[in-house]
Amino acid sequence: MDRYRIIASVDKPRGAKGEVVCCPVDGFPLLLQPGMALWIVPPTLRGPRQVEVRSTKDGPRGQQVRLSGIDDLSAAEKIAGRYLLAREADLPGDLLLHDPQALVGLKVVDATLGDLGSISAVMSGPAQDVWEIQGPYGTVLVPAVPEFLVQADDDLITMDLPSGLVEASR
């Protein structure tokens, strides 16, 4: 059975050909890609319920998106304020790392130091997120950057942190 996630909100119409501005939700990055199948929720009484991304253009406040079946300003206005769902299977494999709600409670281990504890909070920043980890070293703040990540799955994150980072953040 497929699982779905809300990945974006339709902020406003943008253009006479049905383009809309979509913004990521829940701390996700911009995830909309051409060819991606999406579902509009709540659905409109008239108009498409399932759409496909035709094109995207990243902008300062989200993505300008063309969707199949949304071909004019009137149709775009009808879906403003709604959300876009995608199949989890169609989303990037590292989605867990962008989902603050899913990260809280996960166990984190370092390749050298071993158990660091569990993520207790995720602080979103302009450059990267910072994970607050509570464990045997007390409260440790770790930048969530790909260079430190070794492996991530549903219940454990393995990192290779630079020497001194844990001690410096305490």
From TrEMBL:
Q: Where is the Ribosome maturation factor RimM PRC barrel domain?
A: 102-165
Gene Ontology MF term list: ribosome binding
**Pfam families xrefs:** PRC_RimM (PF24986)
- Give me the Gene Ontology terms describing cellular component: ribosome
Write the record's keywords in alphabetical order, separated by commas.
Chaperone, Cytoplasm, Ribosome biogenesis, rRNA processing
Source organism superkingdom: Bacteria
InterPro entries for this protein: PRC_barrel-like_sf (IPR011033), PRC_RimM (IPR056792), RimM (IPR011961), RimM_N_sf (IPR036976), Transl_B-barrel_sf (IPR009000)
What Gene Ontology terms for biological process does this UniProt record contain? rRNA processing
Protein name, please?
A: 16S rRNA processing protein RimM
